[in-house]
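Q: Hi! First time doing this. I have a protein sequence and I read that you can turn it into a structure. Is that right? Here it is:
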Amino acid sequence: MAVYAWRGRNARGEAVQGQLEAQTEGGVADQLKSIGVAPIHIAAASTAEPDGEDAGWLARLTHQPLVVEDILVFSRQMYTLNKAGVPILRAFAGLQASASKPAMVQTLRDIRASLDQGRELSVAMARHQDAFGSFYISMIRVGELTGRLTEVFLRLNEHLEFERDVRERIRQAMRYPIFVLAAMVIAVIILNIFVIPVFAKVFAGFHAELPLITRGLLAFSGWMLAWWPLLLAASAAVVALLRAYLRTPNGRYRWDARKLKLPIVGEIILKATLARFARSFALSSQSGVPLVQALTVVAQTVDNTFIGSRIEQMRDGIERGESISRCAAATGVFTPVVLQMIAVGEETGELDSLLFEIADMYQRETDYAIKGLSAAIEPILLAIIAVLVLLLALGVFLPLWNMGQAAMGKGGG
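A: Yes, that's right. Below is the predicted 3D structure, encoded as C-alpha cells:
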C-alpha cells in the first residue's frame, strides 16, 4: 500500500490534514468519509528524506516513544468507538488519521496492517509489547474470547488512570525533598571549591593553631580540589555499576525488597504496589481470566520483583489446590484485614468486588501517607541543613573569633 497526504475539512468545517495508507486515492477518500472528513486534496506523500546515517541520527533525536498517557487516550477512544458500533478497521483508520505523534501513527499503522492480514487484535498488539505491556495485551485477548472487548477497553482506561495517579502522587511528594537535597549538594560543592580555599589563605597568614572542625573542613576542601577528576570518575563508575547490577535478576530482586523497608517511603511503595496488584487481579478475574493465568500476568505488572515473586508463590499454591486466602497469608505482605476480606470474598463468591475494595483501601492509605510524606521529611531535611550550617559556621568563624579575642587581649595588655 502507498502513503497518501491529504487535506480536508471535518464536520465543524475546520481544516485538517494528515497521511493515510491505501491502495488508491479513492481508498483514502473512503476512509476519510467514514470518519466524517470531507477530502479536498489527496496526493502521494513525498518520500524524500535525509539519506544514510543522517536520517538515522535525525530519527533517533526526534523520536518520542509512546508513554502511559498515549495508551490511556487510545483506550478511551477505542472504548468510545466500540461502544458506538464502529468497525474495528474503520476505528483504527480514524485514530491513525487523527493521531499527531509519529510513534502512535506508526503503531496504529502496523496494527491496521496486521488486522488487514487477518490477525487478531491481541496478536497485532503483541508486536508492540513494549508500548502496551503484557497485562494490557492479555486483557485484550480475554475481551476477544468473551466478546466483552468494549468493557475491557473501559476497564483498562480506568486501570491506567489509577496507576498514573499513584505514580504522579509519589513523584510529586518526592519532588521537594529531592530538590532540597540537590541544592544542598550543590551548595557544599561551591563552598568547598570557591569559599573555603579563600578562608584557608586567610588562616594560613595568621600562623595560628586552628580548631579541629576548621582543620577538617580545610582538609576536605583540599581533598576535593586535588582529587575532583578522580571523584567524578569514581561517581560515574559507581552509578554505571549500580545500574548494571540492578539490571540483573538478583540485583533487581534485592533492590525491590530493600525499597519496601526504606524509612518513610517504604510503606508508601508497598501500599501502592499492593493497590496495583489488587486492582489488576480484580480486573483479570472479573473479566473471566483463570486464576492461575491471571496471577501469572499480574506478577509481571506490579513493577516490583519481590512482590511479583510473592504473587507467583500464591499462584503455585493455588495450582496445588490450596485456597486463595491461605496462599495470600503465606506471602507475608498482606495485613490481617485484607486477608480477612479475601477469605470472605472467597467464601461468598464476591472476590472480585472485594478485591476492588481492597485496591480502594490501599489507594486511600497511599494518598494519606503521601500527604504526610512532606511533613515527615521536612524535619529530617531541616536537621541535616542545621548540622551543615553549624559545621560551616563553627569551622569558618570560630578561628576568626579566637584570633579576634587574642588580638584584643594582646592589645589590652
